[in-house]
Amino acid sequence: MVGKYFQKPSTEEENRVPPGQRVAKGFPVLTYGPTQQISTDEWQLRVWGLATAKTFSWQDFMALPQSHFTTDFHCVTRWSKLDVKWTGVKVTDFMQLVEVEPTAVHVMEHSYGGYTTNISLEDFWRSENFFAHTLFGEPLPSERGGPMRLVVSHLYGWKSAKWINGLEFLDREQLGFWEQNGYHSRGEPWAEERYSS
Ligand SMILES: Nc1nc2c(c(=O)[nH]1)N[C@H]1C(S)=C(S)[C@@H](COP(=O)(O)O)O[C@H]1N2
Ligand SMILES: [Mo]
Predict the structure, then answer these.
(1) How much is the pLDDT for 97?
(2) Relative to the CA of 31, which ligand 1 atom is closest?
């Protein structure tokens, strides 16, 4: 029987779906802990560590260029969702407002609710990464990380922090929530970097 919700990639999809993944027909919600309910009025993104400390508001993000993205989303729990449509702000556009010290090489993503995940500065600071506030043309729902989440589609989904509210710039790698619990520190899906050992 063909799986209804999680299918083997078709021939056309094969080169887009990393090894060990199945194609999700739905789009599962994956959250550890409770969904955060944050309004756009109260939402803030704070920058600290090896960067000039600054706090950004919703309006600050709306004033930046808005871009559209179509991405594939790969969760380490072995489902991939293809062609997800988002609107948001490119990390490279946002980073023009941030003064990073030259010694910064890693970033800790922080979220409302206490979730954290680590990423190298090189994996973070890319024009294909973005802060998303719109999903398939609708305001990003709270269970998806609304009002604002990060999307880093070249790494497993746990690097795409929902309800993002902080970026801490670091001179060394520190481990985030899942990374402390045995997930790989980088999480590149084509190399199947699922676990730390
Ligand atoms: N704050 C926060 N962000 C998070 C998570 C979480 O538990 N808390 N789960 C991660 C995981 S494991 C995945 S696969 C994606 C899931 O995003 P989705 O719920 O929109 O599918 O969010 C990531 N971001
Ligand atoms: Mo995930």
Answers:
(1) 98
(2) 7
Q: What is the pLDDT of residue 4?
A: 80
Burial (CB count <10 Å: 0-12, 13-18, 19+), residue 60: middle
Q: Which of 189, 164, 191, 168 is nearest to 81 (CA)?
A: 189
Per domain, the residue ranges of the chain are 42-191
Check pLDDT > 70 for residue 2: no
Give me the pLDDT at residue 197, please. 84
* 30 in Cβ contact with 77 (< 8 Å): yes
- Cβ-proximal residues to 186 (8 Å cutoff; 6+ apart), any chain: 120, 123, 155, 193
CA-wise closest residue to 122 among 109, 110, 106, 138: 106
Confidence of residue 15 (pLDDT cuts 50, 70, 90): very high
What local confidence, expressed as pLDDT, does residue 3 receive? 72
Among the bound ligands, the one closest to the CA of 24: 1
* Average pLDDT across the chain, whole number: 97
The set of protein residues with a Cβ atom below 6 angstroms from ligand 1 is 28-32, 75, 111, 113, 115, 144-145, 157-158, 160-163
Which of 27, 31, 35, 38 has most ligand 1 atoms within 8 Å of CB, for mutation? Answer: 31
Query: Which whole number is the average pLDDT over 100-123?
Result: 98
Q: What is the Å distance from ligand 1's center to 102 Cα?
A: 30
Q: Which fold has domain 42-191?
A: Sulfite Oxidase; Chain A, domain 2 (3.90.420)
